[in-house]
Amino acid sequence: MIAQIERIQDSPPSAAALGAAHSSELHLNCVLALDPEKIDTEYQRLYDAAVKIGDNDRAIGQIRLTSDHLDAWRGAAADQFRLQVTYMEMFCTAEKDLLNEALRSVAAAYAAAVAARRSLLSLLDATADAARNVFDDQKARETQAMVATVANVVKGILDWDPQKPVKSVADALIDLGKDLMPIFLDDSGADQLCDQYTREGERLCQNLGQGYDHIQQTFVNLRDKATQPPELFHPLPAYCDVASPDFSYDRFKDTIHDPGPIGPKVDVERQKYAEEKAKDSEIDKRLNRGDHGAV
Amino acid sequence: MRVRIVTSPSEPTGRAAVERLAGTTEGGLLMDGFTVDLDEADKACKPEVGSLPQAAAMLRQPLTTLFTFDDWAANRFLHQFDAADRMQSAYQGFCDALGERHSRGCDIIDDTAEALRDIVTLYRRVDGQV
Questions:
Q1: Chain A residues 68-127 within an 8 A CB cutoff of chain B
Q2: Checking DSSP bridges between strand B2-7 and strand A180-184, what pairing results, if any?
Q3: Most Cβ neighbours (<10 Å): which of A88, A285, B37, B128?
Q4: Alpha-carbon gap, residue A139 to A135, rounded angstroms
């Protein structure tokens, strides 16, 4: 395109032409910064992770089976364990929701990168055609470029229902046409053409930057959500832990034994068991220089 | 030896309980129903094969995806755009946070299994099974 301008002027390039040449490098920097194929690959990885976590029938099935295995047990501790199992399933659902929202933002990043590339290509092609018209002093060629309002492309995708993530980011481009605006390049003169190209290119890059900033904010919001502890992270009460003196048979009992006769036996054995566990934990700590997680 | 089948209407599950009455001895509390209940609880927490350890193992599988990040840049030597870098950095921050959260969740599932194992072990000791 710049070579065309120089041919037209038949003299050292004007300020407008130099400006356009410099601007085009900056525009390419912005638009080519991200590789859509790499974003696509990332989308697929994240999509697979979302399925393995949230739609993992086998894992959810095992979690639900746990409640069945504890069905015979009664008492406050037994209820807490069953509640914990419920929180596990809720945890999986919440993880999947976070991933689905992230998928939507990754799709938006892909669409923004592709839309910006297509738009800049269209703008450069139309500017080159306009330059030839100026050189030939005739309006032989169409000088219309189709340029996306990238910020609108991003907004449109971020409005998608996160509960229904698309399997492929290519779906993010299906409605791209509605966000394309025609721009008619001014082929009345070389300087006018260069100035217009520079303005439109800068507008495209600003729009792309706004789109990326919007997506950045969604990731920041998601990170904040991810750092909020779910119910599952709240520790079980002390009476669920055999090492605690608050544990008793009455709090984790079945229908076979009445607490009266067996309760004291459990308490005596509990103390012995707790002491053994504490000793084992200390030995393990010294051998492994670590400690086990505690409820 | 007397075998008595007891159906308790107060039991929410309505399940029939089979109680074998043996002669009681000092510490001799051999009750098959209790063994059954403990064995059932053990199915939830037994290392590796219990339902909770299995669930934790399955949920851990996608963890590497969350902690692995490939640069989206086309060619950093040729093209750079600050807004793109900020967006990527925020994405990586999210993945790290979610990975930490998910890893901790799996650890808690394992810890819950361990707490149940302790109870099962304790009761088996009381019951003279170990």
A1: 69-73, 77, 81, 84, 88, 91-92, 95, 98-99, 102, 105-106, 109
A2: unpaired
A3: A88
A4: 10
Q: Which residues contact A287 (CB under 8 A, 6 or more apart)?
A: none
Residues 64-123 of chain B whose Cβ lies under 8 A from any Cβ of chain A:
65-66, 68, 70-75, 78-91, 93-95, 97-98, 100-102, 104-105, 107-112, 114-116, 118-119, 121-123
Q: How far apart are CA A83 and CA A88, in angstroms?
A: 9
Is the Cβ pair A293, B110 closer than 8 Å?
A: yes
ipTM, interface predicted TM-score of the complex: 0.87
Integer-rounded Cα radius of gyration of chain B: 26
Instruction: Please state, as a whole number, how many other Cβ atoms lie within 10 Å of the Cβ of residue A168.
Output: 13
Compute the distance between CA of residue A15 and CA of residue A36 in angstroms, rounded to an integer.
34
pLDDT in tens, chain A (295 residues): 556 555 555 567 788 888 888 888 899 999 999 999 999 999 998 888 888 887 788 899 999 999 999 999 999 999 999 999 999 999 999 998 999 999 999 999 999 999 999 999 999 999 999 988 888 877 777 789 999 999 999 999 999 988 888 888 887 787 778 889 999 998 888 888 999 999 999 999 999 999 999 999 999 999 999 999 999 999 999 999 999 999 999 999 998 888 888 999 999 999 999 999 898 877 777 877 644 444 4
Measure CB to CB from residue B97 to each of A30, A227, A262 and give the nearest one. Answer: A227
Residues 6+ apart with CB under 8 A from B27: A265, B128
User: pTM of the prediction?
Assistant: 0.83
Which stretch of DSSP H or E encloses residue A144? strand A144-148
Dist CA B52 CA A68 (whole Å): 12
Beta-carbon separation of A39 and B72 below 8 A: yes
Is A124:A24 a contact under the CB 8 Å cutoff? yes
